Amino acid sequence: MSLDFTFSDEHEAVRDTVRRLCREELSPLVFDAEESETFPKQVFRRWGELGLLGVRYPEEDGGSGLDKVSDCIVREELSYMSQAFASSWSAHTHLGIWPIWKVGTESQKECFLKPALEGRKIAGFGLSEPDVGSNVRAMKTRAEKVDGGWRLHGSKMYITNAPIADFLLVAARTSPELRPDSISLFIVELPNPGFNISKLKKEGIRSSETGLIYIDNAFVPDDCLLGETLGTYPVIMESLSENRVGVAANALGMARAAFDAAVSYADERSVAGKRIGEYQAIGHKLAEMSTQIEAARWLVYYGAWRVDQGTLDSAAAARVKLFASETAVTVSEQAIRILGGAGIMREYPVGRIHRDSLVYVIGEGTSEIQKNMIARSLGFKV
């Protein structure tokens, strides 16, 4: 990406569409959704009608035929409004269906990808487990071959969209050996009698419904083995790398929203006859926040450009995700400090944004995991 990089007219049209949708249709839903901790499922249909669920997928597969930059624009603008809405969108549009688009059979694409792109089916991705942490290779959920299909046993936790999903991609071990080719993905239609899904209550992204899943002898037919291929661990890893750039765009949107709220308050609030933004302590905070956001913006869209060029590697994705997610946490905390007592009142968004921002220094790989990957790319075995 050259230093004179600018967004195309098409990119700006996508941004305008999402901003208008957020302003006119989605924003009025946010407060009640947060208070009830319930996602308004009808939103998926609307996203599908506007082509926002298939932004980065080819037209021949039912998508909108745009690029990763466009995908990141959608994420940024949705997150500016509500990270919970953006999280449910992300779990569906990328992790929940990207592997199907990448390696699924034509039948699997017709049955799952197409209706998901139209918003007729809601997807999720079952990877994280209670006892495994960030080491995907150590997962304990297993799949046993039986006549006509597979039997799944295990558990998954912190699975976005699980309580509202029509299907999940579920990662499971097909042999006891701890090697990558023993991990496969299964498409599980819900409800399934072997899946017991409990809704979790969260401090952040409250209206994005998240589940704890107990899997007991759940049967899935042979044609629900993703791509009818064992050993889809590389697909999982590739999906996670690209999604790290995506969630970095989510973090950018949150940082912008917190910053704009802080600037507005600093302009309106006066102390001793001066706007508080004119006091050096506040002005310097805003200056630092502005600089961090600008740096994060360049990293995010550089990462998106690398995805579109086919040159993204795991270390580059880690750098983008690490910086943007930490920026969202720092900027939103500073926004609370600038607002003072108002910063912890629900009539202002900065408290919610800060709670939500903490999700991405943990989810999609913790900041510590990102640092490990970056250090390894420098030749150090950490």
Q: Helices, strands, pairings?
A:
Blueprint: H1 9-36, H2 42-49, H3 68-81, H4 83-95, H5 98-103, H6 106-117, E1 123-126, E2 142-146, E3 149-160, E4 167-173, E5 183-189, E6 195-199, E7 210-221, H7 233-268, E8 270-271, E9 274-275, H8 280-309, H9 314-339, H10 350-357, H11 367-377
Parallel strand pairs: 1-4
Antiparallel strand pairs: 2-3, 3-7, 4-5, 6-7, 8-9
Helix pairs in contact: 1-3, 3-4, 3-7, 3-8, 4-7, 7-8, 7-9, 7-10, 8-9, 9-10, 9-11
Keywords:
single chain, about 375 residues, alpha+beta, Butyryl-CoA Dehydrogenase, subunit A, domain 2, 3 domains, four-stranded antiparallel beta sheet, three-stranded mixed beta sheet
Q: Do you know the CATH topology of the largest domain?
A: Butyryl-CoA Dehydrogenase, subunit A, domain 3
The arrangement of helices and strands along the chain is: HHHHHHEEEEEEEHEEHHHH
Count of discrete domains: 3
End-to-end separation = 31 Å
Mean pLDDT: 94
Q: What do we call the CATH homologous superfamily of the largest domain?
A: Butyryl-CoA Dehydrogenase, subunit A, domain 3
Can you tell me the CATH class of the largest domain?
Mainly Alpha
* Helix proportion range: 40-55%
Major sheet: 4 strands, antiparallel
